[in-house]
Design brief:
alpha/beta, Rossmann fold, 2 domains, eight-stranded mixed sheet, 10 helices, 8 strands, globular, disordered C terminus
């Protein structure tokens, strides 16, 4: 028996005997991210960044100048995971600000959620010039969509590898950890209490998405099912859908097709730039 099977067996047994206690422990685990170090290929971009501190100690990295594009990474992610996209945006004449989400990097906090990420985007937007675009990956994409319902405004919004609703990932995590049904129900309620919003409300089918947008997903994503992208696209009347054949959950951030589609969207919603002529088609 491997360690995961053993852990799931323990959770299944304890979840029947003490469902609330196990659910409380799983809630803390679900909302407490690890701070993972950058990979070697991220280091040059990290070294070239200007570190800034926004409201309430929120940490961010900045590159370039020009119309502002705001980026939000995913769960246990980092701004420099967008390295190839950031380099292309700066070359095209944009200024990029990439947040370190709550409880990530140097930003304060010990726990994180899609709601806290969305609030961080709102706080950042309140200190920055009018935003040309907001781009989010995975949970960062879900938080950008949610933030748009909380007052975030930009010329365009890009969602990459994001789930269309939060209830699905919550239930998947609970099942993966071996929680029996009663403990699963307690777990979902505890997450809702800490997030401050019912999970059923965090669903793009309930949203009014009125900004031009782009939805990107790779068909071989092992973390978020690719069908989620189509659900988001269908709920978002002014969005374009880009499905990549390969890229998994994170590698697609460096895909030339994704980068080209983002730059094309920005050229459609913003002012023409001479730098756009350098973009490879």
């Amino acid at each position: 028996m491997n360690n995961l099977s053993l852990i799931r067996g323990i959770h299944a047994t304890l979840g029947r005997l003490a469902p609330y206690t196990v659910a409380r422990r799983m809630r803390r685990q679900f909302m407490t991210p690890r701070n993972l170090p950058p990979r070697e290929w991220e280091l040059p971009l990290l070294a070239s960044a200007e570190r800034i501190t926004l409201r309430f100690g929120l940490s961010a990295l900045r590159w370039g100048s020009g119309p502002t594009v705001l980026l939000m990474h995913g769960w246990e992610g980092r701004p420099t995971q967008f390295a190839h996209l950031i380099e292309s945006l700066v070359k095209a004449g944009y200024g990029v600000v990439a947040l370190e989400g709550p409880a990530h990097g140097r930003s304060p906090g010990h726990e994180a959620s899609v709601v806290l990420f969305a609030r961080a985007l709102l706080e950042a937007a309140g200190e920055l010039p009018p935003l040309e675009a907001v781009i989010g990956h995975s949970m960062g994409g879900a938080s950008a969509l949610l933030a748009s319902q909380m007052g975030l405004r930009a010329r365009a919004l890009v969602s990459i590898s994001a789930p269309s609703r939060i209830l699905g990932p919550l239930r998947s995590f609970a099942r993966f950890m071996g929680l029996p049904p009663k403990a699963q129900a307690h777990f979902v309620r505890l997450v809702e209490q800490h997030a401050g919003i019912p999970a059923a409300h965090l669903d793009v089918k309930r949203y009014q998405l009125d900004m031009p947008g782009l939805v990107v997903h790779a068909v071989d994503d092992p973390v978020v099912p690719p069908d989620e992208a189509r659900v988001i696209h269908e709920a978002w009347f002014d969005s374009q859908l880009l499905c990549l054949d390969r890229g998994g959950h994170q590698r697609l951030l460096a895909d030339p097709g994704l980068i080209g589609a983002v730059l094309e969207l920005l050229s459609q919603v913003g002012e023409p730039r001479t730098a756009m002529a350098t973009i490879a088609r």
